[in-house]
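Aim 2 progress update. The chain analyzed this quarter is reproduced below.
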Amino acid sequence: MAAGKKLDIDVVWNGPSTETDYARQVQIVDSMIARQVDGLAVAAQDRTTLNASLDRAAAAHIPVTVFDSGVDSTNYMTYITTNNFQAGQMAARKLAELLHGKGQVAMLMHAPGSKSTLDREAGFEDALRKEFPGLHIVARQFSMSDRAKAMATAENFLTAQPDLDGIFASAEPGSVGAALALKSRGLAGKVKLVAFDAGDDLVRDLQDGSIDALVAQDPFRMGYEAVKTLVDKLHGANPPRLIDLSATVVTKSDLDKPEIKALLFPDVRKYLN
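Predicted structure tokens:
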């Protein structure tokens, strides 16, 4: 919406009510193509489900920017993403720092078809394997983008692994669920939690010590750049094929830094009125 106001274009937004309703996202994207929109910005819920829709957009000469989570299709103009593999490595290094390089950890994963989170999880495993032989992954499970399922899964980890030292949650629903599980078991701050994303709930959990560190993206910039690339294309420019943004590790002591406040708390309300 900020890009739409600044660049003087109409932004029409729609999305499924849940992140695992893949069929509904296909319907929405296809309806936008049928409306003959001038450009399409898509955050894919699944890496393969939208491939046929992107083929239809290409056939209709509608430029497509894929942002946040990628697709297997090559029928897009620009892909804007956090370097998710690198972000997963950053999470592993932070958890290793918190645990002094030794211990047992669990991975609370997101969903099987989500490219962005699969890359984070792969990066996390890569860094542990190559850099921290004293840290061992003893449990892993998908939360399917459901906070309640994530909480139950994290509680199962804690029951089955009473000596668990740390958890990595690779997306917002799993991060919230893991924090809830630690609080309910009285283990907040004892079992170290490195979480991903940075919504209001997660920032509160970071402040109260339920979460030890957040790996934060820049979703405001990601959305802004997605619209800008489409407008640039409509004005005759050739946007880059890949715009790769870096994640930021945030701890409680970082929350008062101006650059972290700007990252975590963009003033979105003025753009939504």
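Residues 84-216 form a domain with the Rossmann fold fold (CATH 3.40.50.2300). The chain is about 45% helix and 15% strand. These observations will guide the mutagenesis experiments scheduled for the next reporting period.
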